[in-house]
Amino acid sequence: MPEPQEAKSSALLDKAREEIRDLVQDLKKPQETQLWKSIFRVKHDRTEPRTRALGVLANVFLHLHPARINRDAVRYSYTWGMGGISFYLFLVLTFTGVLLMFYYHPTKVQAFRDILYLEHDVPFGKLLRNMHRWAAHLMVIGVWLHMFRVVLTGSYKKPREFNWCVGVILLVLTLLLSFTGYLLPDDQLGFWAVTVGTNMARATPLLGHEGPLGPELGMTPFNDVRFALLGGSIVDANALLRAYIWHCIAIPLIAATFMGVHFWRVRKDGGISGPSPVMLESEMKPVRKLR
Amino acid sequence: MDWAQVWEIVSLPDNIPIVAIAVLVPFYTWYAARQARATDRLIAQLEADPQMAKTHHRKIHPFRPGWARELPVWPYLLRIEFLAALVVTLILMVWSITLNAPLEEPANPNHTMNPSKAPWYFVGLQEMLVYFDPWFAGVVLPTLIIVGLMVFPYVDTNPLGTGYYTIRQRRVALAGFGIGFFIWLALVFIGTFVRGPGWMWFWPGQTWDHTRVVYEVNRNLPDLFGITNAWLQAILGIIAIAVFYAGSAWGIHKLVTRSELDRKIYERTSLTQYVVFQFFAITILVGLPAKMLLRLLFRIKYVLVTPWLNV
């Protein structure tokens, strides 16, 4: 009985054809597929304001943004984009830094050789190290200019005082990140820079063995705050390991936490501070006591 | 003029960021000042014409009644952020391909570098070591600078000037921060471009001479008066510092209550806020440059001399 067999196979063929037609249809309009909808959750319709807003609000990477902002707030002349650029550079530094970690051992025997290896043998190793170094310098400049802009536009004022303080802490953390990274190549430049830098810690009042009232409190080169920083009385293997751990793990985590607070507070304090309408001297209200 | 020496310092890879700052900071200062002047003109117009103040949209940017006040973030903000990321990546790529990160000989504790300098953003601190002892320049002063920055918003009681560039409404705050920023940059520039072997003063273009000897002898303030008794030295130092603080406080007070607006802002300031402001303004904005000048021009090392600490 060959007939049913034939019918069965042609039905299967028809089904396959139909599914291929559907697949072509799906490829032409990927937004209609189950796969697409499962990833992006909401419909992305460019013409409809509501779904456009949802495109921002329903995206985990963009949800720190509001859906709509003041038309003048997107002007580069106002913000200079320095906060965003600093954050972007932090991401670049994290990415290049993780790649560098694959090739680097924080030990006195290997650290310097690893840098030579990176520079001469690792594919794009030199570019990687250069990018990490220059992005770090750029980030310090970016953070300074961001701070400069915030001062010039009076954006640190009520209700943003606390976020300014978080920003000052982030500035300090940026400098510390850069400083701890300086020692890691284990060359003369980093060694002496860190020696000069940490020698100041000797003179910490009360806590350093050369600081005012330090010796009176029993501080010696082997138990003072500099010893705690270096893990020894000179810049050596322990200092290298400590700098490495502060640089790659501790400070990035602390900084990321403060960044989370910083960005969150930008939104909670009413979004970007301007450009806002000017207030006139004649409109100053008398002081009200805040309790 | 030793141009080779100048080039050697300027072209040092780790000094390139300072050269960049020398361009970027003036540019952005000009960029901000231009907008501030436009805003100040608008403020003057609005103050003079109350009727206009009621109807004007009060920004230097154009606005017409039919225009939407708000924009969707996607695409109008996100495209700028994307472009900024692209431009930064491009700059970083070109910089990284054309200029190599510095790498010197392996670390060697037996071979001291001369001059051995901190990374450029800490060179300012290192330069302060010339003017103060390490416990003050390296620990107390940086702490005061950080705390001073943090209290800035809490002592600035001026309700005007939030969210726009202006000079006339915020003269005191801008001058305060501007002076601080300028001192910091000046310290970085001196530390980088002027200090040579032995941390001696070499003018830009002067050849670094490793065998140079400086014959100047530093003096302490009590030495000028021939005082050798430790008690009298300490008392003289305390009096000198007290006179300095009182004089500076008086001068700063005159400056911050000059205009009518400044007096109005002063009235809104509580005593605690004002004392905190004065303390940081005198210590960092006046005291630091004053001590620098004493040292550089009059070779005075310490003002206050005691057996335990010297300032």
Report on this structure.
The complex is a heterodimer of chains A (291) and B (311). By secondary structure, chain A is mainly alpha-helical. Chain A has eleven helices and one strand; from the N terminus they run αααβαααααααα. Chain A folds into two domains: 34 residues, no CATH class; 193 residues, Cytochrome Bc1 Complex, Chain C, CATH 1.20.810.10. With 311 residues, chain B is mainly α. Chain B has one domain. Chain B has twelve helices and one strand; from the N terminus they run H-H-H-E-H-H-H-H-H-H-H-H-H. The longest helix of chain B has 33 residues. Chain B is flat and about 75 Å long. The chains are: A mainly alpha (291), B mainly alpha (311). At the A-B interface, helix 3, strand 1, helix 4, helix 5 and helix 6 of A face helix 2, strand 1, helix 4, helix 5 and helix 6 of B. Strand 1 of chain A pairs antiparallel with strand 1 of chain B, so a sheet runs across the interface.
Strand and helix layout:
The complex is a heterodimer of chains A (291) and B (311).
Chain A: H1 2-28, H2 34-40, H3 49-57, E1 68-70, H4 76-79, H5 82-101, H6 111-120, H7 125-152, H8 161-183, H9 188-202, H10 225-230, H11 237-268
Chain B: H1 3-10, H2 16-48, H3 50-55, E1 70-72, H4 73-76, H5 78-98, H6 120-128, H7 134-155, H8 171-194, H9 221-224, H10 230-256, H11 260-268, H12 271-298
Keywords:
heterodimer; A: 291 residues; mainly alpha; Cytochrome Bc1 Complex, Chain C; 2 domains; 62% helix; flat; B: 311 residues; 12 helices; 1% strand
Quick structural gist:
The complex is a heterodimer of chains A (291) and B (311). With 291 residues, chain A is mainly alpha-helical. Chain A is 62% helix and 1% strand.
Q: Rg of chain B, please?
A: 25 Å
Helical proportion of chain A, percent range = 55-70%
Mean pLDDT of chain B: 91
CATH class descriptor of the largest domain in chain A: Mainly Alpha
Order of helices and strands of chain B: HHHEHHHHHHHHH
The number of helices of chain A is 11
Residues in helices of chain B, as a percent range = 55-70%
Overall form of chain A: flat
Strand content of chain A: under 5%
- What's the number of extended β-strand segments of chain B? 1
- Characterize the biggest β-sheet of chain B: none
General shape of chain B: flat
Give start-end ranges of low-pLDDT stretches of chain B. Answer: none
